[in-house]
Amino acid sequence: MSYYFVVVSPTDTPMFEYTFGTSKAGGSGQAHFRNGESSRYMNQFIIHAAIDVAEEVQWLSPNMWLKVIDHYAPTNSHISCFMTGTNVRFMLLHQPGGPPAAAGSRTSTLSSSSIAQNPLSPQTDEAIRQFMTEVYEVWVKTMMNPFYKIGDEIKSPAFRARVAAAGRKWL
Amino acid sequence: MGYAPFSPIAPALINVLCVPAGRKSAGIITHRAPDQEPQAEGHASALLFHFTSHSDPNFVQHTKFFEPNRRPQIALGIIDGSSLPPDAFDAALEHAQSRLRQISEQASATDRPIKLIVFDAPNSLPTSDAVFVHTDPDKPSVCELIKWLSEAVALAGSHTLDVVNSEEAELPQSVVRSERLNGAEARPDSRTENSQRQSVIPSLGRKNTQTAPVPEDQTYEATSGKIVSAALVKLLIGQWAEALPQLVDGARAARDANSPAWHAKALEGMLVCLLLHAWAGNEFQIPQDCYPTTRGLSTGSAVHIIADDNRTVSEKFTSTNTNGLTGLTAMLPGLTATIMNLYDRSTIGFDNGLPPILVCEMRVRLTALLIILRRHGSLLSAAALDELVGLREDIKLAPPLGPSSAALVLRSSPLSSLLVESITEAQAQLPVQVACTIYAAVGQRLAELKLERKQGFYLKDVLQKLPPVLVEARKVGAAEAAVHPSASGMNAFASTDKHHAIVAQGVRALLKLTMRTFNIPDLWDTYHRGGDTDSQATTRKRLSSWLSVFTSGDIATKLEVLRLCVRVSDALPDLIGSTQFMGLLLFVARQQITVFPDPSNTVPLIAMEEQTRLANGINNAVSATQRSGVTKVLADYWDDFLIRGIELYESPSAGKLMPHSSQDLSLTTTSGTSKKDPFIYNPFSGDRKTSGPAVLVKDEVASFDVILQNPLEIDIEVENISLLSESCRFEAEMHSVVIGPLTTQGFTLQGTPKETGSLKIIGCHARIRNCHERDFTVYSGLWKPPEVVKRKQLRNIEVSLPETRTLELKVVDPLPQLRICSTTLTQQSIMLLDGEKCRFSLTLENADSIPADLILFSYQDSVSRQLQDALATKDLQPSDTYELQHQLMHRQAIRRINHTPESNGRSSSTAAVEASSKQTFEFEVLGKPGLTEVVVLVDYAYLAKPRNEVEGTFYTRQLRFVVNVTVNGSVDVPRCAIVSIPEQITSPQAHPTTPQTNGKAPAAAAENEQKDVATNQGKCLLQLDLRSLWQTSLNVTIETTDPTTTSSPSSETPPNWTPATTMTLLPTQTARTLTLFTRLYIPSPHAQIPTLTPSTTRQFVVSASKLSLEAELATRETFWYHDEICKRVRIRWREESTHQGGRGREGEIDTRKAIRLSPRMIDALRVEHLQVSFDLVAEREEDESKVVRKGSEAFEVRRNVFAKLIVRVRNLGREEVKLLLRLQPCLADQPHGVAMDLGKKFVWSGVLQRVFRGGIAADESATSELGVVGLAPGSYEVNATVEEVRARSREVEGVSGGNAERRIWHARRPASIVVVE
């Protein structure tokens, strides 16, 4: 599974971006998006489009963890969202690493329940939730940094390292 | 596509093809043929027309029964009657008719009714087959058209019904199977004829019968299909009531025949029928078949979402109320889900499934229905129905209703995922051209759902697919036209192909829409064409757009979208769009608005290579259009803040202009000859800071420093740039410049004012290469974006522009231009010895045609500056202050030598240089220690009137002439002293004839003595040590003068100098000189030390001095004696060569510096107020010979001779004094104790202590006598002391304190009496 994690500010500006791959089940930790070279900006486009859905879903649930909110079939990408109290959104795009499913088919492969293979399984959902909670903790600490200005890009290498660690741990 | 497949009520729309049938008709179509125009006749049923201007030949032949209205059912030809020639009207109509027939054949509508509609015909011709319509609200003609249309529909309907009935046997196979084949091949066959179609279908049918799994099902399927399609035709022609039961039958038959396609079609037909009933307000019964059943539903996830959410609700409603709107509303989601499921099954269940395009269209159509329902708060209100039918399009979104108030809750995300799913299918199964229509429809629906980001995403997807297709099409087109593909686009642009332009415009609109969905504002409205000054409002608008791009959303995606827009425009090729998008990309890419002067600038967001590529792209586009020569495309320059500053550049050569008021003239001394008081403010001296606008001279070229910025990493080529001015005629010169990457750069622009008055430089008019020419305001301030943290703030960001700057200037009348054409100095430097004077002259030339009638000289030098600085410190002693001021005033380093009056007698104060002439002025420099440079400032102007008539401000120009000076030492005075002369030396010469005069007339002698005392107050010696510091021998002369001996007391006449000492000094030799010097009488040595500065003279001054009274008095005394002695002594030196006829150096030593006085020296110099003198005369006349005067105060007398000692006291002061005289006889040259032992040696008669009765008035004298007899030979002395009778307090100006005391004066020398035998 390949992941693209982004923290989106209330004004839709990305504050933090991180691309990584699964470290479970012998994964190398490197992202292998199936749209290859174009993934660099395609992922951003997909996340951008998913903000629409997040804006709707946020009113339907009292939780900060909004689960999988969107799905982009051509690359079989799923988008999960975690929303903080200040309307900052943690968006995670996850893409199963296996062979691309036949485009257009709505029958998902339920063969494997592993996190790496099945983005809709409860295990994956739980793992992402744990990941998001951990990132939220780190994010709150970053916000409390007196040298950080709200709305700025998060440049702290410690934050990046913590997010990477959380990614390795849960995903 | 001739028909509206995405309208929710598509099955009930009559497809009317409206085509232009003659010239000038295109405009009419766009203006008068609305896209969709339902016409309701009564409320029982209605005919719904869909007017379209083009037909889609795809799939037409295969959907003849499945979707009978896919091909045009009526063809209308529209013609502009006014454009037809009146004489050949019929012929023209005939021609149009045949043309229309041809078009309808192409659109495979040959068997359809056709009609020609003539607008604005000159005269109505009833014989013609056409319908005549007038544009003015002419009801009858419109009614006629409607009447014909309804007739035509009835006719067409019956015709179609006939066809359906006649072709029933072949119907199902042909429909179902051939469509799939067509969908798989996806090859549009635009020219298929009816006859060909008939031949193709059986062959396909045969082919597919071999693979058909259940042949017996086909007959059932055909039957159901026949029923359904007949019902659909009835629905079309308005027989809704009949259509509904027939559809129910058809649905049941299809279900039984296991034909999901026909089942779905029948259900959709029923849905539309029910909606139309509801819209028309008819009573209707919802058939039981409409309610969803679980039977046969597939596991399609998206359908489940809707169905699951609403099934319970819908069941609740069916149980209570099966009729009416509420029931229909409740039923809608379920029914749509069922229909979609059936369609899905029809595509995937069998080999001969429906073509995917139909499924996609249906999906979008049904989703649109739900979206409209959702917009109206999930209620089928009248407005919602109107919108469904297409009567209203501008419905605003109803406020979202809570779940309690509405029966249904339709969430947008399932709807959007339904739409997205249809896109996914379209993408996978349809060719790009067809898929694009689906994309567009989905995009529209997403926008209606307020999912703009999603819409943007799919629009972007469409755009991404466009360029390869466009390029392919270009290649094909180029091959057909036999040109190179790369040239085809240019040709298309170059040719006046309006069609291409329209297409390009359309694509551009699509691209801009995409941009807007990504929150990139469209800036083109804000650009003015034709060089108008962009107002601050538009600049602010652009700035706020830039800000909105940066503060919200992901800038990387925005840049990607813009790149995509550029790619699409390039592929089209649309040069206008391409330049616009490239310019916009450059505008958006920069990260800072105002470039900082320091190198810490942030680089633009796109790489340098890409910036270069974009700039080249713009260049290519512009040059391509230039080559074509038809129109010229230019880009919009992306930086409003090109000009960051304008300053007037004052060139040092032209001379700075200084403003002066008319009072300044009166301040300057009228006589140029007299020395100017350096302490009076001189408005023409020095570099004054001028406030107010800078000044330009009419008709003179002025230079301006312009600061340009370039926020990008590419060179910006400014082809021409000139200054922009206001309110005064100004000729700006054109310049061109290249601005380096990511910098601010200074540049000089020039211009010539042509009018006097105030001039405003407001900016620049510039044309950047390949960009529109436009004006730029000067934004001098730095700009930083405001902080936006919250979403709310995005709505109204206050954008303040950087500080602007306009340059206010004043243009004055032409001034002369002088220059220094020659000087007598070979280099601009001279060497002087201390005290030496040197002359040089300057020649000013006026090359202009304007005379300079005011020329004023002022000077600056290094010494004066130091002296002024020293004077500025207030803690100086008054004597020091006086010395400094004296230096400034009387020993100026440079001054102008007055010209000897010329023949015309013109005084130099009115110095003027006539037009094109020269004038010479002479100056004198005085060598002073520390002098390094002197500056002559020449202020000149043309006043054109007498000075006292000058009013207001006038301007002068200044010339500056600097002379470097080196001053070497000449003669130094290391030591100076004043010593009194002993009596023995002076007395014989002073009184050689005293005995004779004494003997003749004592009274006359006394008078003589008086005069002596008054005039010849005795002498002293001035001792000066002189040291030569110069390398050649110097001849030094010390001269003195005595003002008391001169006849006239006027100080203005030059003193009469008499040489006292002359000597030659060898280099470095020190020599001592002695000069006989008359002692000085200072009437008031304690007067206050004056100050030379008029400005600091105050009437009441409290001394800040900390000195005691005595010290203060001593200082004053020293000052006055020093002042007086300096006036009387002059030390001049000259080089020896001067005597030998050579032109050597000569000068004068500053005595004020050379002579320094100590209290002892003052004592030697001073003449007291009261002079006491003695005389000794015999008492008896016979004894006269026995008394001999030996000196001024020395007498010789015989023993036992009665003599009379006369003591004379003379008051030199200015007031009367009352005095007490004390005489003290004693032995000469004896110690004090012995000296007083005078008994039997020297006796006197009278008291030794006595009073001058009545006092002594000023300048008067009094005498007192004492009889004395010398009894023994010897040397005696009589000392005299006078003392004031009463103590009186001294009043000293400027000094407080001082106790009352009696003053005492002593005789300078005692009377010496020698008694001889």
UniProtKB/TrEMBL annotation, chain A:
InterPro entries the UniProt entry points to: Longin-like_dom_sf, Sedlin
Location of the region described as Disordered in the Swiss-Prot/TrEMBL record: 99-121
Pfam family, one: Sedlin_N
Residue ranges, compositional bias (Low complexity): 105-114
UniProt-recorded name of the protein: TRAPP subunit
Organism expressing this protein natively: Lithohypha guttulata
Gene: TRS20
UniProtKB/TrEMBL annotation, chain B:
Coiled coil segments of this chain: none
Start and end residues of each Trs120/TRAPPC9 fourth Ig-like domain: 1171-1315
Keyword set includes Glycosyltransferase: no
InterPro entries per record: Ig_TRAPPC9_Trs120_1st (IPR058565), Ig_TRAPPC9_Trs120_3rd (IPR058567), Ig_TRAPPC9_Trs120_4th (IPR058568), TPR_TRAPPC9_Trs120 (IPR058564), Trs120_TRAPPC9 (IPR013935), Trs120_TRAPPC9_N (IPR058563)
All residue ranges annotated as the Trs120/TRAPPC9 first Ig-like domain in the record: 643-796
Segments of skewed composition (Polar residues): 195-212, 987-999
Domain of life: Eukaryota
Record-annotated Trs120/TRAPPC9 N-terminal domain positions: 46-288
Domain Trs120/TRAPPC9 TPR region: 328-628
Residue intervals of the Trs120/TRAPPC9 third Ig-like domain: 971-1166
Subcellular location(s) per record: Golgi apparatus
Name used for this protein in its record: Uncharacterized protein
Species, as recorded: Lithohypha guttulata
